[in-house]
Amino acid sequence: MEKIQIVHTNDLHSHFENFPRVARFIEDSRKNSVADDFYLFDIGDAMDRAHPLTEATNGQINISWMNSLHYDAITIGNNEGLGNSHEELEHLYDKANFPVILGNLYDQKTEKLADFAQVSKIFTTKQQTTIGVIGLTAPFILTYPLLKWDIHLVQDILPKSLQAVKDCDVVILLSHLGVSMDRLIASKYPEIDVIIGSHTHHLFPKGEMDNGVLLAAAGKYGQNIGTINLELTNHRVIAKSAFTTKTASLKVLDGDQKWVQAQLDRGNDLLSQRKVANLPHTLSSDYHDKNAIIQEALSAMLEYTGAEAGVLSSGLFLDDLPKGIVTEKNLHDILPHAIHGMKTKMTGDNVWRLVMEMEKNRLYLRTHQQKGMGFRGKIFGELIYRGITVDNKRNVYINGQELRPNQEYTLALLDHYLFVPYFPSIEIAGDNEIMYPKFLRSVFGDYLSKKYPI
C-alpha cells in the first residue's frame, strides 16, 4: 500500500490576512503527514494587484511567499496572465523555486510555449510511482492577444498535454478553468485521476466524484485549504478522497496581525514614494462636486482613447484625491480595480440603443452592489456622461448634435462595461478595442502628471 497526500491552494488573490494561518497549515501538514509522499500545488490567481504590496512589487512578494513554502508546482490564473504586462509576466517567475505547469499560453512572436512555463512535470514517488501533472488556464481569447500572448483552447491543448503524461501511473490536472469546464473534462477524460480546480471560486468540502475523476477545489482568498489523499497498490490508484479545512478554524498566533499589517504598510510605503502629480485642489469622489474626480477621469479617458464622448460610473472612485502631491498610493487607494480603458466604435442607431440601456438601468445600478469582472469597489454607482445628452423625448445628442443613425461614433468606455450584463449593445454592436496593459489608475495618473506636473 502506498499513500500520497496533496495540499492545494487556489485563488488566494493576495489576501494576506489569511497567509500566516495558511502557511502554518501547509507546514504542519507536511511535517505531520503519514503519507509516503507529500506535494503542494497552487492553481492560480495567487496574486492580485488590489493589495498594495503586490502592486508595488509586481507580484514578486507573492512569489517570495510561495518560495518559502516550497510549492512543488503551480499554474497561473488570469490575475497573473492578464494583470501583468507581457514583460512583467515573462519575468514574474524568474526567482521562483517551483515549476509553472501551463500548456495553453504561447508567445505570439515566437509561436512557442511561454518561456516560464512547461507543459507537464512528472514526479516520482519513493516507491517509484510516477505522477504526471499538467496545467491549463482559462482561455480569454479576447484579451490575451492584446498582451501579445496566444491563448489556446482547452479542446485543442488538453489531448496533447495528456499525451505527455500518458505513461504515468497517476495523472493530475491543475485547472484554472472553472467548475463547469472541470466537470466537462471529467466526463470526457476518465484517465485523469484528479482535477484540482479554481477560477470560479467554487468549494468542494469533500471533493466531488465525476465519471471516476476526483474534483477538488478550495474556494477563494485562502478561506479554505484543500487536502487530497490517494491510496495505491502496485502503482495503481485504488482510493481517492478530498476535503477542505476552514482557515478561520485555525489558531491565530500573536504575531499574525503584526505580519499582515507589515505587508500592507510596506506596500503603501513603496507606492507613497512614487510621486505622480501636484493637485491645486482636492478632487472629490462626489460626482456632484464642482471638482469631481470623475470629470477629470472622463477627460483622461477621452484623451487616452481619442473618443468624442465617454461614460464612467461613480462607484469606481473609492475616495477623494487630496490637494497637493498625488502618489501611486493615492491612485491605488481610489482605483484598485483590474479594469482597462476601451475605445468603442458604433453607428448612431447603436449608440442610441446603448444609451437607452444605460438609462433603463440607471436607477438599479446607482446602488447595485457590484462584484467581479475586475471591479474592487462596493457599488456600481451613477452613470456619468461626457459629450452625451438625452432629452425628454429620448433623443440622444453627441456634443450637442443629434445622433445620425448611420454615422460612426467613438466612445470612451471600460472593458468592465463589456463584461457586465447591463449593456448588451457594447458586445453586440460595438467595435471594441480594449486598451491593454494599463489599468484605469495608470491612465488617470498619466493624465494628472501632465496636467498638474510636480
From TrEMBL:
Gene3D superfamilies: 3.60.21.10, 5'-Nucleotidase, C-terminal domain. SUPFAM superfamilies: 5'-nucleotidase (syn. UDP-sugar hydrolase), C-terminal domain, Metallo-dependent phosphatases. Pfam families: 5_nucleotid_C, Metallophos. Residues 5-202 form the Calcineurin-like phosphoesterase domain. One of its GO terms (molecular function) is UDP-sugar diphosphatase activity. InterPro entries: 5'-Nucleotdase_C, 5'-Nucleotdase_C_sf, 5'-Nucleotdase_CS, 5_nucleotidase/apyrase, Calcineurin-like_PHP, Metallo-depent_PP-like, Pesterase_YunD. One of its GO terms (cellular component) is outer membrane-bounded periplasmic space. Residues 289-416 form the 5'-Nucleotidase C-terminal domain. Keywords: Hydrolase, Nucleotide-binding, Signal. It comes from the Bacteria. GO terms for biological process: nucleotide catabolic process. Belongs to the 5'-nucleotidase family. This is Multifunctional 2',3'-cyclic-nucleotide 2'-phosphodiesterase/5'-nucleotidase/3'-nucleotidase. The lineage of its organism: Bacteria, Bacillati, Bacillota, Bacilli, Lactobacillales.
